[in-house]
Amino acid sequence: xxxxxxxxxxxxxxxxxxxxxxxxxxxxxxxxxxxxxxxxxxxxxxxxxxxxxxxxxxxxxxxxxxxxxxxxxxxxxxxxxxxxxxxxxxxxxxxxxxxxxxxxxxxxxxxxxxxxxxxxxxxxxxxxxxxxxxxxxxxxxxxxxxxxxxxxxxxxxxxxxxxxxxxxxxxxxxxxxxxxxxxxxxxxxxxxxxxxxxxxxxxxxxxxxxxxxxx
Length: 215
Fold this sequence. Notes:
By secondary structure, the chain is mainly alpha-helical.
């Protein structure tokens, strides 16, 4: 659908959709232009060629080509051949379950794995030292905690990815409900701990007052 064939409402909604996806790009682990190209192709019913993408988003050919290639690598955009046309056309992956699974998998590969490798190397360097001071011990504990968190995050991602790929909504809902229960328990425990601390502080205050009045 060309810009001339769109209603004003469609155009306004499309522009808002593309703008918002661009703003959310960092949350998905991709750049703004890459996100906007996906949003444009996702919204449009027909495949688009590079020239149309450039015109719609007001970007250069180099920028368009580079980001379309990246989207293809991520599995979020597919090349489409139209009969009787030599141009390359592109269409977005419109299955949101597939899109979510591919984004999670790509972020694991591009961010979690390299980060884990770097943190492990930092820890190895610290352990090579013959002497250990308080700063080294503190840093080691921080790195070990970070690596434990990454391992937990990675285990969670790998556990939920098959359910997303299979569109298993019941299993995902079960995991979400478990998370909600856990969060409620954590909130209750934090509330009880805060109340205990307040009571302890009140007892300590009263003891100080009694000790002061007895003098």
